[in-house]
Every structure is written in C-alpha cells, then in structure tokens.
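Per reviewer request, we include the raw input and output of the structure prediction for the construct analysed in the revised manuscript.
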Amino acid sequence: MKILVSDPLSEEGLKILKEVGEFQVDVMTELKPEKLKEVIGDYEALIVRSATKVNKDILESARKLKVVGRAGVGLDNVDLEAATQKGIIVMNTPAGNTISTAEHSLSMILALSRNIAQANASMKKGEWKRSKFMGVELYNKILGIVGLGRIGAEVARRAFSFGMKVLAFDPFLSRQVAEDLGIRVVELKELFEQADYITVHTPLTEETRHLISSDEFAIMKKGVRIINCARGGIIDEVALVAAIKEGRVAGAAMDVFEKEPLEPENELLKLENVIATPHLGASTEEAQVNVAIEVAEIVRDALLGRGIRNAANYPSVDAETYKALEPYINLSEKLGMFSAQLVEGRFQELNITYSGDITKHNLSPLTMALVKGLLSPILQDTVNFINAVALAKERGIKVNESRSSKEAEFSTLIELEIKTDKESRRVSGTLSSNKKPRIVKIDGYYVEASPLGEMIVIQNLDKPGIIGNLGTLLGKQNINIAAMTFGRERLGGKTISVLNVDSPVSAEILDKIKKTENILAVKIIKL
C-alpha cells in the first residue's frame, strides 16, 4: 500500500510507517495542486498538515484513496463532505498540540504583562529604559477564558499557579465540572465586565466570528489585556485596534490573525503594546513529534484493519455494518445538530431512546453520531465520532441510551431529550421511505421537517394570519420558503412551525420575525 506524505512530518512519525513492510512511503512536500492531482490516484493514504489543500478536485482524482490523515486539529484544508461521498476516512490529531498551545497562551500573558518583547527590542538598540517598561503582576488578577475545552482547561491550571482567579464561559460545560477545577462559570457578558485578561480557546464558526468586537470592548474593564492563540477571526482586529488606541485595552498578544500570513502594513503591528507571533501555538518540538506519531499510528492502523480512531466522518465499525447503519448515523448526527441549536442553557443530560427496526443493531455508532452532532456547532473540528461521548463526559454531560420495546408509530424512531440548566426539550427523528432524515416531533408536536440547510423554528399561537405574515415578511426580504410544516396541540393553542429557507436569515430579519404578532419564540438552525 502506498502512502503519500505531502507536508513536512517529523522523522519519528515517518519511521512508524516505514517499519511496516506492506507500506511504501513517499514524501513529496510543496506539491502544486496540479501535481498532487496527477499523482494522488496511485495512493491509498494521504498525510497532510495545513499546507496541502485536499479539495473536491483532488479527491475526485483519488482512485484508490482510503484515508486522509491530518497532523493537527483543524480540518479547514480538507473537503470533508467530498471525502465522505467517496468513502474516504478523514482523521485528525485533536490532542497532540494541547500542551504546546496552552503554554504559548500563558507565555503570551506573561510577555504582555511584563513588556518582555518591547524591552528586549529596546535593549538591542542599546537603550536602558526601565521606567518605560513598567509591568503588572498576574497575582490576584482575573483571567477570563472563553472556551474551556482541553486547551482552555490547561491554561486555567497554569494560571492558578500564578495566583490568578479564573472565570470561564463555555455553553457546553457543566458548572459542576468547572467548579471542581476551581473555575467559576459565568455568562459571556459577566466575563467581559470582570476579567483583567481575556484569552479565547474556541473554534472559528459563524457564531464565534467577531465574538469580541466593538460592543464587547465597550463593556470590558479599562486596562484589560486580550490574548488569542486559537483562531484568527474570533476577535475583530479593526475593533481591537480602535479599543487599544482609545485606552480601553491595555495590550494584546496575538498568535493568529484574520488573514495569514500577516501583512506588514497591518495596524496591529504598528502598536507598541501588541505582541504578535506567526501562528506558533503548536510549534514546539514535542508537539510536532506528538502529532506526527499520532497521525502515523492512526493511518497505519486504519490501513491494516486494526480499527479507526479520531475519524471526523466515520464511526468505529466494519465497512459492512457501516453501510447498513449509514442512513441512521446521518439521521442521528442531524438530530444532534438540530437539537443543539434549538435549546437554551448548558447541557446537563441527554436521554436517547431507540425504538423499532434500528434496535436490532449495535446502537453505539448512532449514539456517537448524535453526540458528535450535538457538540459540533461549538466544538467544530475538535469533536469527532470517536471522542464525542468522552468529550461529553469530560464536560459533565450525562449520556443515557435505551431501547424501547413499545409498539412504535414509526418503523424506526430516535428520540432525544435534552436537559439543560434552563429547560428540557424533546426532538424525535426517523427515516423517510427513501432513507432521508426527518424531524417528526418537537416537544410532542408532530411535524414533518427535513433537517437540511437553513431552518427557522417558531413557537407561536394558533391564530389566523401567521402563515401569511411570515410569507410576506420573508418575501419582502427575497427569502424563498422551500418547505413549511406545522404542529399544534389544539385549535387556537400553541403551535410549532418549521420552515426550510433558501437564503440566510440575518439578525435584522430574525428580529422582525420575533416582533410579529402571536410569535412566542424563534430559533435559526443551520445544518
């Protein structure tokens, strides 16, 4: 079997692959897309870092490809949907750079506090200006962590050793788990208002893009310091520059940027109280070795039939079983993604009930897929089929799975009850006759909705004119309704309406829908 390594990989990882007699390992870095497309057809596996773009065009030329291994966390450079359609397993190494990124984040906090970079530059000019570089202590300061996953938790542990107090915001983390670590969980607004330092550790999604912008800087404590070693784009750089110039923000330490590589004329580089590094979060010898070893091992084991780990698009079952379960796996993941965006509050408990034909199968892959879907809107590439249930457990979310022997209304039904610290909701799904996923119940209301694209879920009173008002409002905004379904408890009572629309719904349009007469609540869901 032939393996192509198209980005630099530590020798420790290459050695693992080369020791397998059945493997031919070819290292060809800096391939142009045209050349990669030309040669990829001969390979069973491809190992990349971030430089190689594994797009649909490349994958269509991959006649033999079984596995793509990404030495790192993000999968921005791999077309996951195209790979899935071709039956190619995509795996990453989500834990390999945890410590290195956490340490870099704390290094940035220290450098920012004591003006280390600026003082060093001054000294090398032959200057001795002690008073210019007066710093601040970390002791007793409040660190606000946005996103308390593996990296965020490691940053917190290290901050405690400096005597810092830690606040955290993470919608998928139970308060109990955080408090057991000595961390106080707060809402985002409170974190912004109280923190002396704010560090972000979330993926970049539509929801987290410019999560910190002008409005957020306006409510922060004067003299706050900002750190980003996660993803460029989470912090609005234009707003950050303005906040620093106004004196609201005392300084910033940035390892990632909205556009990389950073252009020399970027305003951030012109500010003395900004420290910038060129995306070094995972750039330690140990991290490079760790991810190389991990990606080599998971690719080796997948090719030799020893099992699949860290798969972003494939649960751990044999190919024949996967083929039978695939429609149900797709349904489960969609059900999880839909439900995650429907509920309010921090997840505490998931109760999953399977009934009908599906109960004849091993249900573990379905539960994994459902939990992956549930966590994906916020955790993105860091959650996959393999680690989803473990991540839920880490965050204090109880996952209960059961089979129902009761006679079901549907040939197969997957029911999910989500309990949060604010509410409890139920969503049920099944497969249509052509094996497509369908949402058939929301909180006991019967609906018939396709979990696809952009959706609007509305709770409203069953009064005349609702449908017409919605149609008119969306029509005026040039938003076409692709499908619409309603479920009501009784005539004149409460109703749940689900709409599939062909265009994105802006915040302005959402606000207009909320203000429409007899509308009780609205949620935008993106699948």
